[in-house]
Amino acid sequence: MVAAASDIDRDLATMFFRNGNVFLASAARANRRNVRETYYALAIATELVLKAFLVAHGWSDDRCRREVRHDLAIALGFAKAVGLDTPLALDGVVEVLNAFYPNHAFDQFVVPPGKDSFPAIARAMVAGLIEKVGRDLGLV
């Protein structure tokens, strides 16, 4: 279902997108201090940008709050359902982040065993998501 232009809150989508971009930058700065802060910021960036995409496709803030909450996997699934095309590697990143994010448990976060490349992949996937959604919204 495609939302009518009048049903789209462009200001909210733009605000979500810009705030997500700020958290991506925050993740880059946090990386030098605390790995948990880095992944928490990446999770917030992911949530905000996926919600920006959903809002740009007719979702309301209230619907995002009710149906997505802070669940990155649910947000990604809904975004894909309304047309977001992402690399498969993003699903893996979301799976790892989502194990901690909805429960506010990043104080327990550790890089998954045997996945030493996860930090670089996570940053690249979230940055790529932001770029793709920004293009979709006409913001980059």
Care to give the gist of this entry?
This protein is an all-alpha fold. It has a single domain (7-137), classed as Four Helix Bundle (Hemerythrin (Met), subunit A), CATH 1.20.120.
Provide the descriptors you would attach to this structure in a database record:
140 residues, mainly alpha, Four Helix Bundle (Hemerythrin (Met), subunit A), 0% strand
Main pleated-sheet profile: none
Count of all domains: 1
Number of DSSP strand runs: 0
Task: Sketch the topology as an H/E string, one letter per element.
Answer: HHHHHH
Overall body shape = globular
Low-confidence stretches: none
The appropriate CATH architecture is: Up-down Bundle
Strand content: under 5%
From the N-terminal CA to the C-terminal CA, the straight-line distance is 25 Å
Taking all Cα atoms into account, the compactness measure Rg is 14 Å
Total number of helices: 6
Overall residue-averaged pLDDT value: 91
Percent range of helical residues? 55-70%
CATH class: Mainly Alpha
Q: Output the structural class.
A: mainly alpha
Could you tell me the CATH topology label: Four Helix Bundle (Hemerythrin (Met), subunit A)
